[in-house]
Amino acid sequence: MTPATGQPYVWTHKHLLGLDYLSAQDIRFLLNTARGLADVSTRSVKKVPALRGRVVVNLFFESSTRTRASFTLAAERLTADVLDFTVQGSSVSKGETLRDTARNIEAMGVDVIVCRHPLSGATHQLAQSVKCSVVNAGDGQHEHPTQGLLDLYTLAQRLGRMETFDFTGITVAIVGDVAHSRVARSNIHGLRKLGGKVILVGPATLLPRGFADMGCELSNNLDEVLPRVDAVNMLRVQFERLTSQAFPSVREYATFFGLTTQRLRQAKPGLVVMHPGPINRGIEMDSAVADGAQSAVLSQVTNGLAVRMATLFLVVGAQGAAPAQA
Ligand code: NCD
User: Fold this and answer.
1) Ligand 1 atom index nearest CA of 137
2) Which CATH code fits 145-300?
3) How far apart are CA 13 and CA 22, in angstroms?
4) What Rg, from alpha-carbon coordinates, does the chain have?
5) Which fold has domain 19-143+303-320?
6) How far is Cα 76 from Cα 308, in angstroms, rounded to an integer?
7) CA 121–ligand 1 middle distance (angstroms)
8) Of 3, 30, 34, 229, which is the most exposed, with the fewest CB atoms less than 10 Å away?
9) Which of 236, 275, 301, 302 maximizes ligand 1 atoms within 8 Å of its Cβ, making it the mutation to test the pocket?
10) Which one of the listed residues 15, 116, 117, 180 is annotated catalytic?
11) Which residues, in sequence order, are CB contacts of 132 under 8 Å at separation 6+?
């Protein structure tokens, strides 16, 4: 890819902290790199030596199943060594703990720290405290960039946009608990940068008006929005982050915002259904929808591997490049 300046494109990001900090060209370059690496997972020997001798550490201060497993497998497929750290407990609320923990880990000779943390901005702080690369695996309600990237990849795959990763003319509804969702924020940045339109749908209590400033349309009516969109990204209701009652009852939430088979009939025939997981079946969507032909949920998981391989590969490659950028 060559930008307008005529200079060849070079990836310069030593860290991946959010899609907000990447250009459209960076995102497309990463997705194309993922596309090139996807094939490794289909071979009988699922390994390439791209990161042989490198060390990737998973430093998770919050529970995770698929994201951590995905990063571990991605690192292993690049032949990196992987170390798993899980930190549970109240001491993590002190930023100092994060820095100390990370610096101690880094002292063992680490190339990449993949960090998930309950505080928004924690991975930025980490990136300033260590010399190695930092990849954000979800920080509070801020960003979850690799989830945003795997959603973009899956969408492009389903909508026939893999050649360009250009979403011009595509509208995506992000539905549900937008307020607490780092997945929503990363998706909004990514989709908008690649030319897509975003409609945020949810109860008013979970849909802060400020999101309109990010260039999104806001709606409280899924039935009205559904016929207008090419894809839906159904967010998990983040019960663990709700500090007050955001809707009268779970049943009422499901009635207005749950994706049911019946509701799907109002949508465009090729509607792509996504969910970052874990799904609250019967709340965000019915099992028949989650497991149905239009569901891209398992493709999202598969594509997550390629996207994380590309991420690790690119951030390590940028370690020698100056200046290192967030
Ligand atoms: C998401 C997360 O942790 O932010 N899940 C994930 O990474 N698979 C979304 C969620 O927990 O709802």
Assistant:
1) 7
2) 3.40.50.1370
3) 9
4) 19
5) Rossmann fold (3.40.50)
6) 11
7) 16
8) 3
9) 236
10) 116
11) 106, 110, 111, 112, 113, 319
β-partners of residue 134 are 113
Give 16's DSSP letter. B
Alpha carbon of 195 to ligand 1 centroid (Å): 24
Q: For residue 4, how far is its CA from the centre of ligand 1 (angstroms)?
A: 37
Known active-site residue 116: yes
Question: Given this chain, do its domains 19-143+303-320 and 145-300 carry the same CATH topology?
Answer: yes
pLDDT of the chain along its 326 residues, tens only? 445 667 899 999 999 999 999 999 999 999 999 999 999 889 998 899 999 999 999 999 998 889 999 999 999 999 999 999 887 654 555 556 788 888 888 999 999 999 999 999 999 999 999 999 999 999 999 999 999 999 999 999 999 999 999 999 999 999 999 999 999 999 999 999 999 999 999 999 999 999 999 999 999 999 999 999 999 999 998 887 777 777 878 899 999 999 999 999 999 999 999 999 999 999 999 999 999 999 999 999 999 999 999 999 999 999 875 544 45
Residue whose entry in the numeric block shows the structure tokens 């940045």? 189
Residue 6 phi/psi, 5-degree rounding, is 85, -10
Does ligand 1 have an atom closer than 6 angstroms to the CB of 67? yes
> How many whole angstroms from 125 Cα to the centroid of ligand 1?
21
Nearest partner of 306 among 112, 162, 141, judged by Cα: 162
Q: Is 8 helix (H, G, I), strand (E, B) or coil?
A: coil
In angstroms, the CA 200 to CA 233 distance is 10
CA-CA-CA-CA dihedral for 33, 314, 320, 114, to nearest 10: 180
Domains of the chain, residue spans: 19-143+303-320, 145-300
Q: Is the pTM of this model over 0.85?
A: yes
Whether 304 is in the pocket of ligand 1, judged by its Cβ within 6 Å, is no
Q: Verify whether ligand 1 is closer than 6 Å to residue 183 (CB atom).
A: yes
